[in-house]
Amino acid sequence: MGITVNTNVGSLVAQSYLSGNQSKLSKTLSRLSSGLRVTEAKDDPAGLAIAQSMASSVRVLKQGSRNGNDGVSLLQTAQGAMSQTLDILQRMREIASQASSGTYGSGDLANLDTEFQALKTEIDRIQVTSTFNGIDLLNGGSVSIQIGENNTSNDRISLSLTTTDTTTLTIDGDDVTSQANGQSALDTLNDAIDTITTGLATLGAAQSNLEAAVNSNDTRAVNLDTARSRIMDADYAEESANLAKYMIMNQSNVAMLSQANSSPQLVLKLLG
């Protein structure tokens, strides 16, 4: 190659390599400082799209787990109120059994009925006042809990609630003012207790279902976070090695560019 002044080809080549190396060094520094392998969409367009989709799923799954835990709290509150109702019903049944015996006079039965009626009033009071964030817990119906990340029936769990007022339990007209009435109350109270115990079993099964769904959500969220990490996170061992390589190459490029820029001075010797 001839010696020229107007175009320093060696310098241009050295500048090109230096520019490319500087770009790689800058990208390595960006990855090391951010901890991310993909710092811009151009680094890995498909990987970024997949990772962002995973991140969105993780956020929704974690919210679903919080929803599920709220549902568990609702169920536990309902169970507590129903357990109180069950205790009262069992006491009423005890009183009815006592009144069913022929050894008590009318005055004794009247005293027993006073407690019996007070307990019925308490059952209705518990039914009215048992709420969770404004939701009636002992008035029947159902509550839908969003667990999954999509809008399908498989992404929701329905919680069935039991009505526990004395009218629904068909004990509102019961009394123990006579032996016959006490014996009749035993039958209706048995049915009422069965209703409450079945409701408690339903709540218990729903709580187990919710807890299993929350655990499933948490496991899936961890797995998605792990998969996203493989796509997005920088490998510090690799990037540290790249940093050392590009810094050495950068120094070499600068030295070669300096040599290339000084080569036209040879022309002065020819002219001298």
Walkthrough of the structure:
By secondary structure, the chain is mainly α. It is built from six helices and four strands; from the N terminus they run H-H-H-E-E-E-E-H-H-H. It has a two-stranded antiparallel ribbon with strand order 1-2. The chain has a two-stranded antiparallel ribbon with strand order 3-4. The protein is rod-shaped and about 140 Å long.
Write the layout of secondary structure elements.
Blueprint: H1 9-34, H2 45-99, H3 106-129, E1 131-132, E2 135-136, E3 142-146, E4 156-160, H4 179-232, H5 236-262, H6 265-271
Antiparallel strand pairs: 1-2, 3-4
Helix pairs in contact: 1-5, 2-3, 2-4
- Radius of gyration in whole Å, from Cα? 39 Å
Biggest sheet strand order reads 1-2
Oligomer state of the chains in this structure = single chain
Bin the strand percentage: 5-15%
Number of helices: 6
Main sheet overview: 2 strands, antiparallel
What's the β-strand tally? 4
Decide which structural class fits the backbone. Answer: mainly alpha
Order of helices and strands: HHHEEEEHHH
Structure summarized in a few sentences:
The chain is mostly helical. It has six helices and four strands. It has helices at residues 9-34, 45-99, 106-129, 179-232, 236-262, 265-271, and strands at 131-132, 135-136, 142-146, 156-160.
